[in-house]
Amino acid sequence: MGGGLIGMLSAHELALAGMQVTLLERGRAGQESSWAGGGILSPLYPWRYPDAVTELAQWGQARYRALAESLHEQSGIDPEWQQSGLLMLDVAEQAEATAWAERYGTTLEVLAGSAIQHCEPAVGGHHGAALWMPEVAQIRNPRLLAALRNVLEQLGVVFEEQVEVLALQHQGGRISGVETSQGRYRAGRVVIASGAWSRKLLDDPRYLVAVEPVRGQMLLYKGAPGLLKAIVMSGGHYAIPRRDGHILVGSTLEYVGFDKSTTQAAADALRQVAEQLVPALADVEVVRHWAGLRPGSAAGIPYIGKHPEIDGLYVNTGHFRNGVVLGPASARLLADLLLGRASEFDSSLYAIER
Questions:
Q1: pLDDT in tens, 163-181
Q2: Confidence band, pLDDT 50/70/90 cuts, at residue 91
Q3: N or C terminus: fewer CB in 10 A for the chain?
Q4: Can you say whether residue 172 is alpha, beta or left, with left for phi > 0 and alpha for psi between -120 and 50 degrees?
Q5: Domain residues for 187?
Q6: 0.85 surpassed by pTM
Q7: Structural domains of the chain, count
Q8: What is the CA radius of gyration of the chain?
Q9: Which domain CATH number covers 168?
Q10: pLDDT tens digit string along 143-154?
Q11: Considering 296, 312, 331, which residue would you say is the last residue of a domain?
């Protein structure tokens, strides 16, 4: 249930293991937060996250290039994985960041003065220190979704779009399927991977996953290729350069329920952010402004695992701002649990009842 990146990656793991998989999507597959985000393959300020997030992120980071290349080869669609590096201009926690990097074996450098300009000339003059993580990569998430869908269809995964799940069907502690706007679908196993909408599908108050919609607005600039080379961050906002010269600037963090509308106030604020990060963007056209709804969760730790009381019901949701980077590991853990395989992850960290 859910045709975003988490649902698709979960379907990919299960289909490769020989399962027959149907994806039910209330709208169009891959068009919610999976499409709307920036595709940075790292949590922002990663040392601020719990170990449970870092473990999933690092597993995915080590495998994303191979995943992108495999999907490209099979689908003919290039997800555009590229190692851009992440330059953070406003970080006061140098000691914490350095200690975290040493603990996890991650390259992190403290830059100052001309070294910042040398790393990314487009940032202009910057006073003070910056942190540079050269290993951080990005992926063009709309292209990743398109490639993944193509491969899933080759594997026989069925996409059912414009199908809203209304209720779970279970009896005697066992799942039997779901009731939808298009009728009943029977299944021996059901996975809730519905992002910000997941909480609505679990009607047992004892096991409600604490997931809520958090709106994020983005701007897209169309510049010349090479105007910006690195991902640049300051004050929680970022600019992400694509190969073709597009630059994404984001993002807001708004608790406004299921409202996906865009606002002029956010557009103005993001324009100001963009020009502070990359002064040359003052003369570059904004070609798009959109919003998406992230599945917010406490500390950004997703819920992955089986329902404590309904056999055959599983969840994979609540990835907040890091669904793209956490997705491959989350899908692997979900498949391990569903298929009864040994897992290299501590599943208790992500359990519903935690």
A1: 999 999 999 999 999 999 9
A2: confident
A3: C
A4: left
A5: 5-79+141-208+300-350
A6: yes
A7: 2
A8: 20
A9: 3.50.50.60
A10: 999 999 999 999
A11: 296
